[in-house]
Write a structure and sequence with these properties.
Strand order of the largest sheet of chain A: 4-3-5-6
CATH architecture of the largest domain in chain A: 3-Layer(aba) Sandwich
Number of domains of chain A: 2
Structural class of chain A: alpha/beta
Strand content of chain B: 25-35%
Shape of chain A: globular
Radius of gyration of chain A: 20 Å
Distance between the termini of chain B: 12 Å
Helix content of chain A: 40-55%
Largest sheet of chain B: 5 strands, parallel
Order of helices and strands of chain A: EEHEHHEHHEHHEHHEHHEHHEHEHH
Largest sheet of chain A: 4 strands, parallel
Oligomer: heterodimer
CATH class of the largest domain in chain A: Alpha Beta
CATH topology of the largest domain in chain A: Rossmann fold
Strand order of the largest sheet of chain B: 5-2-1-9-20
Chain lengths: 374, 343
C-alpha cells in the first residue's frame, strides 16, 4: 500500500522505520511545500567546503549532469552571517542587509529560486522573509540600508528551498538512475539509516520544512526512495552538539560533545548502518566527535570498533548514482565509511584513498588509538 | 405559545430544554449526533465523587420527560433573522420558526495531534484522557494499547491549555481534577503501578477537589511532579520516554513509562464555531462566544433573542454547566415575557 503526499509523491509505509506509520504520514502530509523545478540560484555554505569539501560539488554535478537542471552561483556571494547572528555578535539589521544583498545578486543574475546549501542560512533567509512579511516597514528600512550602502535593489525570492529540499523533490529521479541502493547486498535488507536534520531547518518555522519540525521527512523521504529504512530513536530531535555557543565558546565544548554522546548512546541500540545529515555542523560534529569520544572514553559506536559512518545527503546521492567515493570526498571523513561501501556494494580502490586529483599520493594520516579506521 | 430552539443536546441543552418545557415553552432541541447526552456518553465516572456518569445522564433524561421536540442527526444549515424571530434551516426538514434561540453547542476536546512533540497518533502507548476514560469504562482490566499491563503511567496536565504554542492561552478548568480522578482509578486497578502526574500548577478550585488531590497522594501514592513535558518518544520496546523539567528541583528529568496519558483541554466545538458564524456572533481570542456582558449578561448573546448556555462561552464543569443552563432559561423566559407584552 502506498500513499500520495500533497505533492503527489509516493510514501511507502513498509519503508518508514519503527514509528506508527499512519500518524507520521498525517504529519508529513500537513507539512509539504513548493520546491522549484529548475533555475536555481545556489549559495554555498561558509564552512562546508572545509568540512566535507566535495559535498557541494556533488550537489551541483548531480543537479546539472544527472538531473539536467540550471544552477547559477554568483562569485560575489558572501556569508549570510548566520553563525555570528546566532552567537549574538551580528545585529539583526546587519544580518538583514547582508541577506538583502544576496537577494540583490540573485535579482541581478535573473533568478528567483533561492537555494542555500547551509541549514542555518536557510533558517536565516526564512526568518528574514517571515520578518518582512509581518513587518513591511522593516523590509522598507532594509531596502534603504542596502541602497545607501551599495546602490543595489532586489526582488524577494519567488521560491526558497534548502538544498536537501531540492534533492527531496528529485529523490525518485535519482532513484530511477541509481546504480546502488541503500540495501545491504549481503542480506538483502534495507540499510538502517539515522537521519539527522539541522535544528535551523524547521524547528523555528515548521511549515517551511518537509514533514515539519517533529517528524521531518526531507531526509527520510530520500532514504525511503533509495531503499533504506529510516531509524527513529529517542534522542532523534536532540541537537548534534554544534549549537554554536556550545562549541565556539571553548569553555562550553563539554556541552557540545555531551550532546553528541547522548545521541550516539540513544541510537546505538538500533545498530544503524549510517547517519545522514543535511546541515554542515551536524555532519562535522557527528563524525569528528566519534573520534574524540573514543579517545576520551574508549567508546566506539559502530560494529567491531568502527564508528557509525556519517554522510551528507549529497554524498549519499552521489553513492547511489555510482560516483567514485574518493571523487565525492569521502576520504576526509573521520568515522570509516568503507564498511558502508561494502554493504552497499560500492567499489573503491583503497590505494587511491589518499591521492590528489592527479593520482599522486598525499601520504596517510596517523590512525587513532581507539576508533578503528582503514 | 412561544417556541425556542435549543442547538445542542449535551448537558446544557438537555437541562435547558427541561426547564423551558416545564415553564410552558414549546422547545425544539437540535442534536447533530444520533442521541442526546453529548460528552457524557463518552465518560465513565465523574469527579470529585467518582459517581457513574450514567446517574447524571439519567437525571437529565428524566427531567426531559415533557413535550420537547428532540431532533437527532440534525444538520443545521442556516439561521436567518426574521421580523418575528429566527428561521432555522435543518437539512432534510422543514424550516423551524423560533422566537428565541439558545446556543448550547459545547466544546470539543483538544486535538492532541497538534502537540506533535508529545507523539499522540504516532506512538501507540500515548493516549488522551478521553481515550483512558473509554479504556477503564465499566471496570475493564487496564491494559495499554500494546496489550500490556502498564507498570508506570504518566499523566501530562494542560495539553492544549495554557499553551501559547497551540494558541490556547486559557485554562480548561477540569483537566487537573480529572487527572487526579483518573490517577486514583488507575492505582485502584493496578495497586503496584507507579503513577506520576506532571503539572504546571494544580487548580483544585471546586468543592471536594482538594480533598481528592490529598487522597491521591496520601492514600494512593500518586506522585505529583511540577514540570512540563518537553517531548515524548518511544524506546525499542515501545515504552514511552518522557523528558520533563522538574521545576521544583530545577533539574531535567527523563523517565520511561508504559502508558502516557495526555490531559486534553477544551476547545470551542466545531458546532459552536459554525453557529457563531451563522449568526455573526463575536468570538474571543480563545474562540468561545463572547456574551453581551461578561459579568452581568453571561447568558445573552450580543443579538437580542439569542442566548448562551454551557461551554460555548468557555470551559465549565458539569455543575457549572447545569447552573449556567438554568440561568440561561431565566433569561429566555424573561425575554419571552417581554415579547408577549410587545404583542
Amino acid at each position: 500500500m502506498s500513499h500520495l503526499t500533497a505533492h503527489g509523491n509516493q510514501i511507502n509505509p513498509a519503508q518508514t522505520g519503527t514509528q506508527k506509520v499512519s500518524g507520521k504520514q498525517a504529519v508529513w502530509q500537513e507539512y509539504q511545500k513548493e520546491i522549484a523545478n529548475d533555475r536555481y540560484f545556489y549559495v554555498r555554505s561558509c564552512v562546508r567546503q572545509n568540512f566535507f569539501p566535495a559535498a557541494e560539488w556533488t550537489f551541483l554535478k548531480i543537479l546539472r549532469d544527472d538531473l539536467g537542471k540550471t544552477v547559477y552561483e554568483h562569485p560575489c556571494h558572501t556569508t549570510c552571517t548566520g553563525i555570528g547572528y546566532h552567537s549574538d555578535i551580528i545585529p539583526l539589521d546587519t544580518l538583514m542587509t547582508v541577506v538583502a544583498r544576496q537577494f540583490a545578486l540573485m535579482t541581478e543574475a535573473g533568478y528567483e529560486n533561492f537555494v542555500p546549501s547551509c541549514v542555518t542560512s536557510f533558517g536565516v533567509y526564512t526568518e528574514v522573509l517571515e520578518t518582512w512579511r509581518h513587518f513591511p516597514d522593516v523590509e522598507e528600512k532594509v531596502r534603504r540600508y542596502l541602497k545607501n550602502a551599495t546602490g543595489r535593489e532586489f526582488e524577494k525570492p519567488g521560491n526558497l528551498a534548502h538544498a536537501s529540499d531540492v534533492f527531496y523533490r528529485f529523490r525518485e529521479s535519482i532513484a530511477s538512475q541509481a546504480k546502488y541502493r541503500l540495501v545491504n547486498q549481503h542480506t538483502g535488507k534495507p540499510l538502517k539509516v539515522v537521519d539527522h536534520i539541522g535544528c535551523h531547518y524547521a524547528k523555528m518555522f515548521p511549515q517551511k520544512g518537509i514533514g515539519g519540525a517533529e517528524y521531518p521527512y526531507v531526509l527520510a523521504g530520500m532514504i525511503d526512495a533509495w531503499g533504506g529504512e529510516a531509524v527513529d530513536y529517542p534522542e532523534r530531535r536532540h541537537c548534534c552538539g554544534f549549537g554554536f555557543r556550545q562549541y565556539f565558546v571553548r569553555a562550553n565544548r563539554g556541552y557540545s560533545i555531551g550532546c553528541s554522546k547522548k545521541k550516539f548512546n540513544s541510537m546505538q541500540p538500533y545498530e544503524p548502518d549510517m547517519i545522514i545529515t543535511n546541515c554542515p555542523g551536524c555532519s562535522l560534529f557527528l563524525d569528528r566527535w566519534q573520534y574524540a569520544i573514543s579517545e576520551i572514553e574508549g567508546i566506539t559506536y559502530g560494529k567491531d570498533g568502527f564508528g557509525i559512518p556519517v554522510f551528507t545527503f549529497e554524498e549519499v546521492a552521489g553513492l547511489v548514482l555510482g560516483y567514485d567515493p574518493w571523487d565525492i570526498g569521502l576520504q576526509v571523513h573521520q568515522a570509516a565509511i568503507e564498511p558502508l561501501l561494502d554493504k552497499m556494494g560500492v567499489p573503491y580502490d583503497p590505494d587511491k584513498k589518499y591521492s590528489d586529483i592527479q593520482g599522486r599520493p598525499l601520504g596517510r594520516p596517523n590512525k587513532p588509538k581507539v576508533l578503528k579506521v582503514f | 405559545m412561544k417556541q425556542v430552539v435549543i442547538i445542542g443536546g449535551g448537558i446544557a441543552g438537555m437541562e435547558a430544554a427541561a426547564w423551558l418545557d416545564h415553564n410552558g415553552v414549546q422547545v425544539t432541541l437540535l442534536e447533530q449526533a444520533d442521541k442526546q447526552g453529548g460528552k457524557l456518553l463518552t465518560w465513565d465516572k465523574l469527579f470529585p465523587t467518582r459517581r457513574p456518569t450514567q446517574e447524571v445522564l439519567a437525571f437529565l433524561q428524566k427531567s426531559m420527560s415533557g413535550q420537547t421536540n428532540v431532533v437527532t442527526n440534525a444538520q443545521l444549515a442556516q439561521i436567518q433573522r426574521t421580523k418575528n424571530g429566527f428561521l432555522l434551516s435543518v437539512q432534510g426538514r422543514e424550516a423551524i420558526e423560533a422566537d428565541a434561540v439558545l446556543i448550547a453547542t459545547g466544546f470539543d476536546v483538544f486535538n492532541a495531534r497538534k502537540k506533535e512533540e508529545y507523539g499522540y497518533g504516532i506512538y501507540e502507548n500515548v493516549i488522551t484522557s478521553a481515550d483512558l476514560e473509554r479504556l477503564i469504562a465499566g471496570g475493564k482490566p487496564l491494559v495499554n494499547p500494546a496489550g500490556q499491563v502498564p507498570q508506570r503511567i504518566g499523566f501530562i496536565h494542560c495539553v492544549g491549555s495554557r499553551d501559547e504554542k497551540v494558541g490556547n492561552e486559557y485554562c480548561s478548568r477540569v483537566c487537573c481534577v480529572t487527572a487526579v480522578k483518573q490517577s486514583i482509578t488507575v492505582k485502584e486497578r493496578l495497586p503496584d503501578a507507579q503513577v506520576f502526574c506532571f503539572y504546571m500548577d494544580l487548580r483544585m478550585f471546586g468543592r471536594g477537589y482538594e480533598k481528592l488531590y490529598r487522597e491521591a497522594q496520601e492514600k494512593h501514592g500518586v506522585t505529583f511532579i511540577r514540570g512540563r513535558l518537553s517531548e515524548a518518544c518511544d524506546d525499542p520496546q515501545g515504552r514511552i520516554i518522557v523528558k520533563v523539567e522538574d521545576t521544583l528541583r530545577g533539574l531535567p528529568l527523563r523517565m520511561t513509562v508504559d502508558l502516557l496519558v495526555l490531559m486534553v483541554g477544551m476547545v470551542p466545538s466545531e458546532g459552536t464555531t459554525r453557529v457563531a458564524r451563522m449568526l455573526d456572533l463575536a468570538r474571543g481570542s480563545d474562540g468561545f462566544i463572547v456574551p453581551a456582558d461578561e459579568h452581568t449578561q453571561n447568558n445573552k448573546a450580543q443579538i437580542p433573542g439569542v442566548f448562551l448556555a454551557g461551554t460555548c462561552t468557555g470551559p465549565k464543569s458539569i455543575q457549572g454547566t447545569i447552573a449556567d443552563a438554568r440561568a440561561a432559561c431565566l433569561q429566555v423566559l424573561e425575554y419571552l415575557k417581554e415579547l408577549r407584552k410587545g404583542l
